Amino acid sequence: MYRIDNYINNDDIKILETMGPFTVVEFQRDLSVSPSSAQTAYFSAAMNVRRRQVICDMAKADITLQAGAMQWMVGNVSSNTGIKGVGDFFGKAVRGKVTGESAIKPEYTGTGTLVLEPTYRFILLIDLKDWNNSIVLDDGLFLACDSRLQHKAVMRSNLSSAVAGGEGLFNLGISGDGVLCLESPCPKEELIEITLENDVLKVDGNMAIAWSGSLEFTVERSGKSLIGSAASGEGLVNVYRGTGKVLMSPVGN
Fold first, then answer.
1. pLDDT above 80 for 15
2. Where are the domains of the chain?
C-alpha cells in the first residue's frame, strides 16, 4: 500500500483533464524562486507559461512512453523495452529512424502510479474513438499512450514533392482503441479542428499537428504550374484530401 500527499491535493496544483489512464496537472506558480528570478516567475504564471505533468493510473491500462519520459513511479509498476524479438527490434528501429521518434518506447505494466517528466509544453489527451481509431502525428508530439495502440510509419503519397518541401517522407501513425497523450506547441484552446467530407485542405506551412489516418497527405504545388506557384508566392503546400479531421495550430511548428 502507498499514499501520495502534497501533490494533487496541493493548492498550487490544478487538475486540467482526465481521460482513460491519464490525468494532466498544472503547477499554477513556480514557488522555487530566488529574488533574482521572482519577476520572471510572476510574469510566466500570468502568461500561462507553467509546468505541466502527466499522471498515469496503471490500474486502468498498460502505458507506452516516449523514451526518457518517466520521472517517478510508485507501487506495483514494472517496465520492459516492448521488444518482442529481433524482427520487432529491427522494425521499430527503422520506424524510429524515418519518423524521428525514439526507436524504443518502454512499456509499463502494473497497478501503481507512474508520473512523467514535467514540461512547459501543452498536454493534449486524445481518444482515438473520436478519430475513427486512426491518427497520424507531426514529428516530436508523441508522449504516451495506452499500450494496446499500434504504431507504424506512414509514408507520404508523393515522395519527390515531400523531399522538395523539406517535410520528410514519414510520420508516426497510431491506430486502435485507447487514449493518446501528446505534447503540443500550443494549447487546446488555440487549436483549429477542421472536418473534411470528401474535400481538400491546403496549408502553407507545417501547421497541422495531427490528422486522421483516413486522409491522403501529400505535398503539392500551390498552383497548377511551376510558374503559377512562383507567381503566387506560395510555392509548395501541404494537402490533406478525403474524409477525416485535421488538428491545426494557428502558427507553424
1. yes
2. 13-248
pTM passes above 0.85: no
Q: How many CA atoms are closer than 13 Å to the CA of 64, on its beta-carbon side?
A: 19
Nine-digit cell at 54? 502527466
Q: Which residues does 68 contact at the CB level (< 8 Å), separation at least 6?
A: 102, 117
Mind listing the pLDDT tens digit for each residue in 176-208? 999 999 999 999 999 999 999 999 999 988 899
**Residue closest to 183 by CA, chosen among 12, 39, 22:** 22
In 11-42, which positions are buried (b, 16+ CB within 10 angstroms) versus exposed (e)? eebeebeeebbbbbbbbeebeeeeeeeeeebe
Write the CB contacts of 132 (distance below 8 Å, at least 6 apart in sequence): 212, 213, 214, 244
DSSP letters, 118-187, are: PBSSEEEEEEGGGGTTEEEE-TT-EEEEETTSEEEEEE-S-HHHHHHHTS-SEEEEEESSSEEEEEESS-
13-248 to CATH, choices 2.170.150.70, 2.40.30.10, 3.40.50.620, 3.60.160.10? 3.60.160.10
> What SS3 state is found at 236?
strand
Backbone angles phi, psi at 16, to 5 degrees: -85, -40
